[in-house]
Amino acid sequence: MIYCCEDHVELALDVIVDDYFVAPKLEKIEDPGKAESGCEYCGKLAVYMVANG
Ligand SMILES: [Zn+2]
Question: Ligand 1: distance of its center to the CA of 18 in Å?
């Protein structure tokens, strides 16, 4: 599972496909203040959660 911001959502999707060879599941975080962590890549507030399957 990858938390990512608006800017890095494409990257996160690519990473899931490359690592797990499955279609990633993209979920919008409705309340970003409650996200457990920031963007994996830049540390900004995470807006999306990308899961493998
Ligand atoms: Zn980011």
Answer: 19
48 to each of 3, 7, 16, 21, 43, how far by Cα in Å? 6, 10, 13, 20, 13
Put simply, whether the predicted model's pTM sits higher than 0.85 gets the answer no
Which residues have CB less than 5 Å away from ligand 1 (the ion)? 5, 7-8, 39, 41-42, 44
1 neighbors 36 (Cβ within 8 angstroms) = no
| 2-52: pLDDT as tens digits | 999 999 999 999 999 999 999 999 999 988 677 678 999 999 999 999 999
Beta bridge partners of 14: none
